[in-house]
Amino acid sequence: MVRTIRLQAYSRGRVVEVYVPSYTPMKKGDPIVQIDPEPFEIIVRQKQAALAAAIIGNTSPGIRQALEQFRAERRDTVLASPDPSRA
Question: 67 and 52 in contact (C-beta within 8 Å)?
């Protein structure tokens, strides 16, 4: 039995490669298209830069509190790990 279905992307973006021609039988999990990762990578780099600037500037009390909480959680994780090199 052959079924034809409509697809909708979970993420928006420009398709840079199509792996499967139309009406080709597929299995669950088969990749269909490759979406250009560059816009997503740019957003990640912008967020990382903003975080670094906030840490360096350390001006907002909310940022300071979040940073201290992260450091405490990280310290607890390392201390609780049987092999600190893997934490």
Answer: no
